[in-house]
Write a structure and sequence with these properties.
about 290 residues; mainly alpha
Length: about 290
């Protein structure tokens, strides 16, 4: 049974708001008139700046107590998160919102695979079945995008790279969420992601916070506030009141929400193959969320 939120509201209403927040991420990316690396950096950098005043005190107490191995894992998680944002945001300039968000949401399947290889964790039979389904769904999406041109297919591959790097972030951070207060953990990985993206940004000669139109700067800020701080913050809060499978099942609403918003706000209509492949991918992810830990 779920518990109510501290304010007395329904935890399911809070979770619905979470889905709405993260669904806007791809829309704000599209509204930012800037290279993908710049969008990725400013999103996570501004979110880190906004979080820092509330998390620094906790971080100063917790970070020195980490072992060398834990510190390396924390740094690796930050690098992987930066790579996730770089690849996934780049995918949105090449393929549809629907294809990109559907494919990047296959990250849980890669996480399970990496956990099996690197951590020796058992993979339930239902997860193996779901993985096959998800691969079939991704192939259907890619087949439909192939007809749209090689650029769309490249976008699909970048979205899958975003899923892989997000799963590496999850595996690298396994256990650290218990070793650190949540705010100290988030500040560390967001800071690591910001530094990773800053190095990439400067290496290609892109500016930081200057030279962008006002609408793009507002899009950067919206990305930091809505899908990052609010969206991810509400996910963590929801996990206090609902089981992880329930939260995961609700989060499958992100591809649906993002596709609907892209249609309403950007006039982007997903193709039939994307809808079919997306339905298969969502079925696979639903199987993992509801049955994967049984």
């Amino acid at each position: 049974m779920s518990r109510g939120t501290p304010g007395g509201g329904s935890p399911y209403a809070l979770l619905a708001l979470t889905v709405a927040c993260v669904s806007f991420g791809s829309i704000f990316v599209r509204l930012a008139s800037a290279p993908a690396l710049a969008v990725a950096f400013h999103r996570i950098f501004l979110a880190t700046l906004l979080l820092a005043p509330f998390a620094l005190r906790s971080a100063k107490r917790a970070w020195p107590a980490l072992t060398r191995t834990q510190a390396l894992c924390l740094a690796g998680a930050g690098v992987a998160l930066g790579a996730h944002f770089a690849t996934w945001i780049a995918s949105l300039s090449r393929t549809s919102v629907a294809s990109s968000v559907l494919l990047v949401n296959t990250a849980p399947l890669f996480t399970i695979g990496f956990s099996r290889v690197f951590l020796g964790e058992r993979v339930p039979a239902v997860v193996a079945t779901a993985t096959g389904l998800a691969l079939a769904g991704a192939a259907i999406i890619a087949g439909g995008d192939w007809a749209a041109g090689a650029d769309s297919l490249a976008g699909d591959l970048l979205a899958l790279a975003g899923a892989v790097t997000l799963s590496i972030y999850h595996v690298a951070g396994r256990g650290l969420r218990n070793a650190l207060p949540l705010d100290a953990y988030v500040l560390a990985v967001w800071g690591g992601a910001s530094l990773t993206l800053l190095v990439l940004l400067l290496s290609v000669g892109l500016p930081v916070l200057v030279g962008y139109p006002a609408r793009t700067l507002l899009a950067f800020l919206a990305l930091a506030l809505v899908p990052t701080l609010a969206g991810h913050g509400l996910v963590n809060r929801s996990l206090r009141h609902l089981s992880a499978p329930t939260v995961g099942l609700f989060m499958l609403g992100e591809p649906i929400g993002a596709t609907l918003l892209a249609f309403l706000l950007l006039g982007e209509r997903p193709g039939g193959w994307t809808l079919l492949g997306g339905a298969v991918v969502l079925l696979a992810l639903a199987l993992v969320v509801t049955k994967g830990e049984q």
